[in-house]
Amino acid sequence: MTISVWRYSHFALAVSSFLFITLAAVTGIVLSFEPITGKVPSYKADHFNQLTLAETIPALKRSFSSVTSMRVDANQFVVVKGTDTSGKALEAYVDPSTGKVLGTPHKQHAFYQWVTALHRSLFLHEAGRFFVGLTSFLLLLIAISGTVLVIRRQRGWKRFFTRIVKDNFAQYYHVVLGRLSLIPIILIALTGTWLSMARFGLLTEKKVVHHIDENTIREEPVRQPAAFPVFKQVLLSQVQTVDYPFSEFPEDYYTLKLKDREIVVNQLTGEKLSEVIYPVTTTLSRLSLDWHTGRVSILWAIVLAIACLNILFFIYSGFAISLKRLAGRSRNKYKPEQCRFIILAGSENGSTMAFAKALQGQLIANGEMAYCTDLNNYQTFPQAEHIIILTSTYGLGDAPANANRFASLVKKYQQQPGVHFSVVGFGSHAYPDFCQFAFEVNNLLSLQPWALPLLEIHTINDKSPDQFNQWLVTWSQKVGLTGIALPETMKQKPAGLETMTVIEKTAITHADEPFIVRIKPSWRNKYTSGDLLAVYPADDYRERLYSIGKVGGHIQLSVKRHPDGLGSTYLYHLRPGDTIQARVVPNPHFLFPQQAPAVIMISNGTGIAPFLGMIEENNQLSECYLYCGFRYKLSFEPFAAALNEHMAANKLDGLQVAYSREEEKQYVKDLLANDADFVAQTLARGGVLMLCGSLSMQHDIIAWLETVCQERNGKSISHYQSHGQVLMDCY
Ligand SMILES: Cc1cc2nc3c(=O)[nH]c(=O)nc-3n(C[C@H](O)[C@H](O)[C@H](O)COP(=O)(O)O)c2cc1C
C-alpha cells in the first residue's frame, strides 16, 4: 500500500472524528484527576498487600455486631457494610487489620458525575454511548495508521525511534510526541472500544453459576474463620467483594468475588464449596476499566492525562500539517488531460516554480486551459498542444530534486504527434555549467518523434524577470496570444522580510582575505548554525544566500569579496548600526548531529562559516574535528584565534589547515588522505562527516571517500549517505 493511502486514511479518520475525540480528550483530562483526588485522604492499610482474609474477617467480627458485605475498592480501601456494636447500620472505610472505622465513603462528586456522563454518553443515552464507542475505535485506527506512517517515514520499524528532521514545529512534534504517547493512546482506544462492546453485549460474558449440593454441606468440624484454609490463602489485594452469609444456617455461605474467580465457602467448617474461574472476557473487561480510568494507580492516571493532552495537540498539529500541505500543492483549476498548455517546472528552491505559476496564471486569465506541475510528474497529456518546460540546474550541472526522474519518464510516456515544446533554463553564470540541465532536457525532447520545437532554448541568468519577459513576448507571439506579461510582483523582493541590524564588519587588506559580518536578528527569530541568510542586495528580486554560523548569540557570515559580486560588495559596504532586510532560510539537513559519536567537519574557503558556530555551541564537548582548506595563510587568519580557543576549551579535538597556494600547497582532500584510516573508522562507528564549501571540493571528496569506504569498510559511500552520516551544504 502506498504512503498516500495511509496518509489519506489517517487524515480522513481524523477529520471524521475530531469533534468527538476533542470532547473525549478534554473530559478524559478532567476525569484523570478523579483517581488522583480520590486517593486523598488515604484509607489504605499499612501492610495491605500482606493481609489475608483470615486476619481481616475476625478483626471485623470483633468491631461490628454484624457484617453483610465487605469490598476492596480501586484505591485498595476496605469498605464494610453492617451494623456497629450499638446496633447502628453503617457503611464505612475500615482498617482491615484492626476493624477500626476510619471514615465514610462519599458518592461521586456531582461535577465528576456530570463529566463522566458526558464522557460516556454525551448525555444522549444509548445513542451517545454508541458514538463514544465508535470514536474509541476510530482513535485506534488513527493510532495504527499513524504508526504505519512513522515506520514508513523512518524507513523501517527498527529506526522507529531514530532522529527526526525538524522541518517545522507542527510536523516535528506531531511525530515526536506521537511516538512517545503511542502506547497509552492505543491502550485508551483499545480499552474504550472493549468497554463499549461489553456494554452493548457484543462480548460473551457468562454469568457465574455455582452448583452446590445442599445435602452434602457439612456442619462439622466447626472452625473459626481465622483457621479457614481458604481465608488463609486469599490476600486482601486479590479481593473485590466478600458477601457474608445471611443467617447462621449452613446453607448460607461466604461468597468471595476475587479478581479472577469466585469462591463459595462453608461458614461453619471453612470448606470450599465451589470455585468458578471467570471467563477471559470478564477479566479483560475489569482490566479495561482499570487501564481506561487509571483508577488503580496515580502514576497511570497522570500518564493518561498527558496522553489526552497530546491527543489535543495532535488534532491541532495534524490540521496545521494538512493545511500547509494543501497550500503547498499546485492548485490546478483544470485536470492534466483537459489542457492545451502544459507547464512543467524543475525547481529546487521554488523560484522557477514561481515563474511557472505566473505563466499559468497569465494563460488562464487569457481564457486558456493550462496545467502546471513538477517535471517529475511528466505523463501523457492527451490534449496538449504546447509543453513548456522551465527548469533550473543544481549541483554540478545536475537536475533539481523535482526533476531527477524526467529523463526516464520521457522515454516511458509518449505525446500525440506534433506537440510543440519550448524550454527555458534558469541558472547562474556564477556556475561553470550554466543551465546545463535545461540543455539536456532540450536535447532529449528534440529526439522524441512526437516533439516539434517552437523556439530555441532560452536561458535566464539569476532569475531575471526582464530576461523571462523577453522570452514570454516571443513565445506568446509564436503561439498567437496577446496581452501576456510577467506580473510586476515578480520583479520585487519577497514580502515579509525581517529588519536586522549589523553589529560588526571586519576590514580586509587583500582580496583573498575573507571578511566577517555579524548581524543581530530580532529576538523572535529562531535560527541555528547551518541555516542560510537570504539578503537582497539590489532591493529587488535578486537574492543571495550565505551560510550562518551562530557566534556570540548573533548571525555570523564569512564572506569572500568578489570584485563584481553583487552580494559580497553589498555586505562589504555595510557598517555597524546599518539595518538590512533579510530572512533566515532553515536548512534542517545540515544541523550539528548532537548524538553522533564523532563529527568530522570539512570545508574550503568560506564554507568554514557554519562550523565556527557549531563548534562554539559544542558545550557537551562532542568529539569534533575540523579539516579546512584555504588559498593563503591570510585567508585563515580571521578564524584562527576563535578556533584555538575552542581547542583549549575541548570543544574541538583536532584542527588541520591546508593552504593551496602556500607552504606545501595542499588541498583539504590531501589532509584527509593522510588520515584515511581515521575517517573510515569514524564512519564505521557511526560518526558523521559534514561538508561545506565549493561543489568541486564536494565532488573530489565524495569520489575519494567512495574508494576509501570500499577499501577499508567494504561499503559504498552511498551507504553512509543514506544513513545520514554524510551531510553536505556546498554551492
Ligand atoms: C548549490 C547550487 C548549485 C547550482 N548549480 C548551478 C549550475 O550548475 N548551473 C547553473 O546554471 N546554475 C546553478 N545554480 C543556480 C540556480 O540554478 C539558480 O539560482 C536558479 O534560478 C534556482 O532556481 P530554483 O529556486 O527554482 O531552484 C546553482 C545554485 C545553487 C544554490
TrEMBL record:
Single Gene Ontology MF annotation: FMN binding
Cellular compartments per GO CC: cytosol
Domain of life: Bacteria
Organism encoding this protein: Paraflavitalea soli
Descriptive protein name: FAD-binding oxidoreductase
Membrane-crossing residue ranges in chain numbering: 12-33, 130-151, 172-195, 298-323
Flavodoxin-like domain residues: 341-480
Keywords: Flavoprotein, Membrane, Transmembrane, Transmembrane helix
Record domain FAD-binding FR-type: where: 495-593
Alphabetized SUPFAM superfamilies for the sequence: Ferredoxin reductase-like, C-terminal NADP-linked domain (SSF52343), Flavoproteins (SSF52218), Riboflavin synthase domain-like (SSF63380)
Gene3D superfamilies (UniProt xref): 3.40.50.360, Nucleotide-binding domain of ferredoxin-NADP reductase (FNR) module
Coiled coil feature spans: none
